[in-house]
Amino acid sequence: MGLTATRVKAAKRGFAKSRGGRPTRDAAIERDQRLIEVATRLFLERGFDATSIDAVAETARVSKPTVYAQYGDKRGLFAAVLRREIARWLAPLAAAAAEMRVDSASDRSVEQRLTDLGRQLLTINCSADSIAFSRILTAQAINFPEVAQLAVDEGWSKAVSTTAEFFDHLVDSGALALEDTTIAAETFLNMVVGHAHRMATFGIPFEMATAEQRMVVSIRLFLAGAIGPPDRLRDAAKGKRRPAR
Hints:
The protein is mainly alpha-helical.
């Protein structure tokens, strides 16, 4: 009886219905997008514990059974929110890797490319939303290790692999000398954003200008070990490529 009444109420909220009585595909997509947007806002404003399925459903104008059917429970809903945020955080890395594939002969120096990329990563990873999610994950990691593992698998691991792909192209062109691009990617990400993100997560005030200067110095230190001997630079300038691996 309660479920039927809930469905009737949902029908009165203006969703376009198919002949079978369910929302049309476009209406369902719109509903799910709104649900994720609302859940994101509430998780960021209230934290994980203080955000309820009731509040999300009411604010998003959907029924509780709809939320449970779509995501299972609050952890499932938070995981869906986290996946979308991770995709947004990874976008600059994916764009840089794609650009490198189609524009390996860019006039920009390796240092400039890495600095531009580092600045984007710093801005995104030190944003209020990113820090809020980091704090939620830290607080919930022990109780819900699968959510923390999701952040590692779909966040950090993909960030490393995408950065490694970026470095692969630089190595293939002779611009960098790296024994292991995966380890190099981990090192680069930790050097460029690790410190600033950690300070922000702990709530320790810092100036973004100072963080950017730290990033620039870190990139120069990274390149000091990644460029290799002078003869490699001369070969790269002459257009010579390293032997195929």
